[in-house]
Design brief:
Strand order of the largest sheet: 2-3-1-4
Strand content: 5-15%
Number of domains: 3
Largest sheet: 4 strands, antiparallel
Number of helices: 10
Helix content: 40-55%
């Protein structure tokens, strides 16, 4: 790395609020401090935009700021200033602490904690300009913790299969019986909605007390041994999308939401609100058909909103 961008800034000591705002913005974008009032980032478009935003903000408050590109022939001189190793080690320790506390009684608390950890990891990786193996190790540890929590919440959750996905014709899957485990949560609810909305509008849903109760004539989904379940890093909803080549507008955003709520990963902005609503429905509706109807209305609304939002941004 030879090319860098430097922000040289000065604000009167009386402008404490403005100084704090600038400091927080620089910290959030991962800028290194060369000395008081001099901040450094790799000369990349996103970094340049971050520093330009701070420069503009300082200028608007009667401060002085200059954005200067520099070339370092050494190439390695500044890289150690961006070492995130200690941050990854601290985050890894928090992940292990959460794992040590995980049991049936603490699963709710651990689930909330892991969402905070996922957000922290996303913030850290965004400013990790020179990643090492620690990034992969920490991400893997967090994913494994998310899976452990998912298993604790739903002990019969399916394990991932590495079987190849076969592309199927929807016309051959009409008016069928589709079976999954009773008391469905997000992946099963979303998959059932997807089936009726995009695959088999006349589908009959069968809620199983146990996965091995699935009748031979039924199409099972979201349990081990089912025709449609977790495949690779795909949840059942995504497996169904791939199997039936569903590419309707907005569905991929529903899939991202379902994936995060089922197994973790990148958090969509709607996730917290949707999870709160779905949890409330599941607690108050003991009939699975009624639960699916209510959840289906939410998925319909999300899909409609995503389609409109994507169209307005096009």
């Amino acid at each position: 790395m030879n090319n860098w961008i430097v922000l040289v800034m000065a604000l009167p000591t009386s402008q404490a609020t403005e100084r704090m705002r600038a400091w927080r913005a620089l910290k959030a974008c991962g800028a290194a401090v060369l000395r008081d009032g001099v901040y450094l980032l790799p000369d990349e478009p996103a970094c340049r935009d971050h520093l330009a935003s701070v420069e503009k903000d300082i200028a608007s408050t009667n401060g002085t700021a200059f954005l200067l590109p520099i070339v370092d022939p050494n190439g390695e001189r500044f890289i150690n200033l961006f070492d995130r190793g200690m941050d990854y080690l601290q985050l890894s320790q928090e992940i292990e602490n959460c794992r040590a506390l995980l049991n049936e009684a603490t699963v709710g608390t651990c689930s909330k904690t892991v969402r905070k950890l996922r957000k922290q990891l996303a913030q850290l990786t965004a400013i990790d300009f020179f990643p090492t193996d620690l990034k992969v190790q920490t991400s893997t540890a967090l994913t494994e913790l998310e899976v452990s929590i998912s298993r604790a919440i739903s002990p019969e959750e399916p394990t991932d299969s590495n079987q190849p996905i076969t592309v199927l014709e929807r016309a051959e899957y009409q008016g069928r019986v589709w079976a999954t485990r009773k008391r469905p949560w997000i992946d099963r609810l979303a998959s059932a909605w997807l089936i009726r909305r995009f695959i088999d509008s006349d589908a009959q849903l069968l809620w199983l007390a146990h996965a091995n109760d699935c009748p031979a004539h039924a199409l099972g989904f979201d349990f081990d041994g089912a025709q449609f379940s977790h495949t690779g890093n795909l949840v059942t909803f995504e497996t169904l999308m791939a199997s039936f080549q569903i590419v309707a507008p907005g569905v991929s955003r529903v899939a991202a939401l379902v994936h995060y709520m089922d197994v973790g990963g990148i958090q969509p902005p709607e996730a917290t609100g949707v999870e709160r609503v779905m949890s409330g429905l599941r607690e108050t509706m003991l009939d699975d058909d009624q639960l699916l109807a209510a959840a289906g209305a939410i998925f319909d609304g999300l899909l409609n909103g995503f389609v409109k939002e994507d169209a307005s941004n096009a």
